[in-house]
Amino acid sequence: MKEKLKKILPPVVFLLLSAAVFAVVIWDRTPASPISLSGFKLNTVVTITIYDSKDESILKGCMELCDEYEALFSRTIPDSEISRLNAGELAESNGISPLSEPTQALLAEAFRYSELSDGAFDPTIGAVSSLWDFTGENRHAPSQEAVEAALPYVGWEQVKLTEEGILLPKGVQIDPGAIAKGFIADRIREYLLEQGVKSATINLGGNVLCVGSKPDGSPFRIGVQTPFADRSETSAILEIDNRSVVSSGIYERYFEENGIFYHHILDPKTGFPCENELCSVTIISDTSVEGDALSTACFVLGLEKGMELINSLPGIDAIFIDRDNNLHYSDGFSTAILPSDE
Predict the structure, then answer these.
(1) Are residues 84 and 208 in the same domain?
(2) Tens of pLDDT, residues 145-171
(3) Which of 28, 99, 260, 320 has its CB 3.0 to 4.6 Å from that of 103, i.e. a possible disulfide?
(4) What are 188-219's pLDDT values in tens digits?
(5) Pairing mode, if any, of strands 317-322 and 278-285?
(6) Same domain, 253 and 268
(7) DSSP states along 85-141
(8) Nearest Cα residue to 196 out of 55, 48, 47, 37
(9) In this structure, are 139 and 80 located in the same domain?
């Protein structure tokens, strides 16, 4: 299992994903065709596929949930709850900003993983991340001076989250981008289950969450993309039912300037892209929110410390891919992987 798997292209259907994708959903054609709906939301391509229902209103309900959560969590929509929080518009006379239930729950999860990772995952990265643009036409690195001026406002321990809301010091900016899609995927799964759906895939730009298994009881197949290769090339194909697969990697959002390679995973301690031996980290977990947070945290921590964190957590599997395209598996890796000759 721990040998590097061959690149596999079995006769299956690939779900085409956006430029922010690190994992690929793969499934066999079945006589009972699923229903599916895609849209550009959360700054990526969102695709919901349902296998055991023909009720297209459920698909539309999933997309509406994406819109509702984006209106709360987006750092770039001026009137979102997060934007208003960062602007100080929500603060009451005691300094505490009351939050909606979803935003309160999202930030509680975010700060839990900040503590767990000793700050490798940090939602207060906003003052620094706002200096970077990895998707625009004029991508370039901010100056060292600008980053250093923003760094004092990065640090999750400066923030106090209470039952009444959040106490956010002036200048500290929340950026929930590294956890929001995972949180939303889990909420969409809850909605699908409430609608009686027991077989579906939720793909939020590469954050893949499987609801149950395929209608015939067989698992879904999730491909982990080979870094810097064509999106149809996979380093591993996982068999998944009722679990989440989330990857963070350096090979989708990046640019080069003056001969220097810059990728989008920022180190909260330096404000610049992480410099380590990794190309990607893939987390297999029961919930997407933990996969989202841990994939980022472990990438920031690097291979040794990241693997140490994963190995301390029950029920989590991980694949780390280094810059030589070697695959490293967490201890006791239990997720089924298809044989290389399948």
Answers:
(1) no
(2) 999 999 999 999 999 999 999 999 999
(3) 99
(4) 999 999 999 999 999 998 899 999 999 999 99
(5) antiparallel
(6) yes
(7) HHTT-S--TTSEE---HHHHHHHHHHHHHHHHTTTSS-GGGHHHHTT--SSSSS--P
(8) 55
(9) yes
pTM for this one?
Answer: 0.90
β-bridge partners, 246: 283
- The CATH number of residue 108's host domain is 1.10.3980.10
Q: Which two tokens stand for residue 286?
A: 């029961």
The arrangement of strands across the sheet holding 220-225 comes to 13-14, 23-27, 220-225, 234-240, 336-337
| The pairing of beta strand 220-225 with beta strand 234-240 | antiparallel
Distance of CA 291 to the CA centre of its chain: 7
**Is the domain of 22 the same as that of 152?**
no
Nearest to 49 by CA among 59, 40, 62, 36: 36
Both tokens of 188, joined, read 């969409």
- Rg (C-alpha) for the chain, rounded Å, is 20
Report how far residue 169's alpha carbon sits from residue 175's, in angstroms, rounded to the nearest whole number.
14
Q: Cα(122)–Cα(119) distance, rounded to whole angstroms?
A: 6
285 CB neighbour count, 10 Å cutoff: 24
Q: Which domain holds residue 99?
A: 74-167
What separation in angstroms does the CA of 19 have from each of 23, 251, 263, 278?
Answer: 11, 10, 13, 20
To 10 degrees, what angle do helices 288-311 and 101-116 make? 10
